[in-house]
């Protein structure tokens, strides 16, 4: 079987839009899909701890009639006693699929080498495709149409930024990443997004100028220190505080909504005033993680 989902970089707009429609349909009528994973067992391998990812996959798979087995890594790493390929090969003997939240993208590739069951990327250093699909599901519900929207991501250029750019380029959304110098998104990934954007007629851009944002539809931020990074806030405070999402910045850009994939650190990357405001789509965005992920799983096992 294989296939799986590590990144959306090779998907067409038609494929991504079909997943968005499927996620919306599941959200509207989950009972219709109650047997979509009947008899299927999905293993969740987590090098990184999680709230939203673990709970949304566990409950979501249950709603599809499947079984989710959570495996955490006591030492924080999957590899050690045996190779990643051997771990994947053994899991493939019993499980119908693997959902993995890992530190390195290469880990996902190695896990998939030893078996023919689909591997779903629940987060790695380069991509966060499930989050990205949930983000655009949220925006489609808020705006009705995604084409031509202007989204600004502000903060650390990370896996969330990359998936936001890749999917935005495919779906016809203009995405601007505003990041401090030295914290820009991964250059090869940006280049891939720019190439995809050329096909859909939108722009993907990176800047360090927070004052360059004008006429935006959405502002998006994420934590400044990724999970597993031991950097202290005091070490990056002066660099990142000018990029904090505040109500003043929100109004200055003309944006209508604000997104954050959470966990959010109030009064660091985003103020409570904005996070708790009517402009915040954070809880809808979190809820949509389950619907987006279930759409991916339904599609993989159809």
UniProtKB/TrEMBL annotation:
Q: Report the NCBIfam families cross-referenced here.
A: orni_carb_tr (TIGR00658), PRK00779.1 (NF001986), PRK14805.1 (NF011380)
- Known catalytic reactions: carbamoyl phosphate + L-ornithine = L-citrulline + phosphate + H(+)
What the entry lists under PANTHER family is as follows: ORNITHINE CARBAMOYLTRANSFERASE, MITOCHONDRIAL, ORNITHINE TRANSCARBAMYLASE, MITOCHONDRIAL
Similarity field: Belongs to the aspartate/ornithine carbamoyltransferase superfamily. OTCase family.
What EC number is given for this enzyme? 2.1.3.3
Q: Which GO terms describe its biological process?
A: citrulline biosynthetic process; L-arginine biosynthetic process via ornithine
InterPro entries linked: Asp/Orn_carbamoyltranf_P-bd (IPR006132), Asp/Orn_carbamoylTrfase (IPR006130), Asp/Orn_carbamoylTrfase_sf (IPR036901), Asp_carbamoyltransf_Asp/Orn-bd (IPR006131), Orn/put_carbamltrans (IPR002292)
Keyword tags: Transferase
**One GO MF term, please?**
ornithine carbamoyltransferase activity
Question: What are the residue boundaries of the Aspartate/ornithine carbamoyltransferase carbamoyl-P binding domain, all occurrences included?
Answer: 5-140
Q: Which stretches make up the Aspartate/ornithine carbamoyltransferase Asp/Orn-binding domain?
A: 147-298
Domain of life, per the record? Answer: Bacteria
Listed name of the protein: Ornithine carbamoyltransferase
